[in-house]
Write a structure and sequence with these properties.
Elements lengths: L16 E7 L1 E2 L2 E2 L5 E5 L2 E6 L4 E5 L12 E3 L23 E6 L4 E5 L4 E5 L12 E3 L26 E6 L4 E5 L4 E5 L12 E3 L17 E6 L5 E5 L4 E5 L12 E3 L26 E5 L2 E6 L4 E5 L12 E3 L24 E7 L2 E6 L4 E7 L1
Antiparallel strand pairs: 1-26, 2-3, 4-5, 5-6, 6-7, 8-9, 9-10, 10-11, 12-13, 13-14, 14-15, 16-17, 17-18, 18-19, 20-21, 21-22, 22-23, 24-25, 25-26
Length: 370
Amino acid sequence: MNETLYTLSAEGLPPLVADSFIFKGDEGNPLLAPRGVWLHRNKLIVADTGQNRVFIWNQVPQNEYTIPDVVLGQTDTTDTGRNAGHEVSGNTLQYPSGVWSDGQRLVVADAWNHRVLIWHQFPTQHGQVADVVVGQPDFTQNQPNVKGIGTPPSAQSLNWPYGVFSDGQKLWIADTGNRRVLFYEQFPTQNFALADGVIGKPGFEERDYESHEPIWPYSVRVSPQGQMMIADTQYYRTLLWNNWQTALTQPADVIVGQPGFEANGMNQFSLFPKQNTLSWTYDAFFYKNGIFVADTGNSRLLWFDEIPAQNAAFATNLIGHAHFGTGSENSNTRYGTDKQLYWPFSVCISENLLAVADTGNHRIIFFQLY
């Protein structure tokens, strides 16, 4: 068996990966189902989702195992319980997912506490308390939409927020359970901040949805040129806007993975994946003039060397399989999944270094891109 299936590009196409290595966290305290990864210059931030904590390395690790510099979400660095086994507070986490940082600030989507935590000074201490909470009135509350299941959303509430992104000034939150993305003109500095805009709904109190709106928005990305992508997991598609500002008032300009807004089939109802289909996509990332899409359910990354201009565009290449028709379960997984990507949830690129949360294999894979 090929020992590096996870580095493969489509047979007959130029390789995308020059080099790669696997990282599993702290040897005595390894990763479990990480669903968020972020690179900023030399820093690596990983949401160790299955163990309710966030790890920070001030230098990108060079070995398979490295002890983290900071552990957030637990009072003891080796603990793993939801909210550290206690009541929710300013230094606990429950199923953290999306992460973002500019090296000075840190934002964490604390999904099952129905809130987003912000550190305005980059954490330097284990278990450091967040400075601001978004989605809840204070650090001691954690119900969906503040008052519990069945409560309508508002401009201040969150329900299963899985993704966060900022351009350094503005903030976007994928408020997944409310089927929308919230927009903040300025970085929140006070608890329970009001959002300035909403993507995917006509108003802040709406939760019903139409097929042209984000159905299950899991992550949100904005390029330096102002384009926006939202990974719309439940409809097996990635939504693209040519200008993020138009997302506040109109449907996406382009759909990756589906031929139209009404289409919602896994792999477009094909038994096997194709060059222009998706299955349970959870993330995407802008790179150079194109995009990488985490085609999570097919255990691959699709590469488009230009921003797609039409629906259901064909990918230029891929990482993770030798053929576009290969899915997550294949002849190579009979003896385990560790030789390939397996349900990659999150991707981030800094310069030419691609970090992938290879969630199903409980690890991060670094790819040096050509």
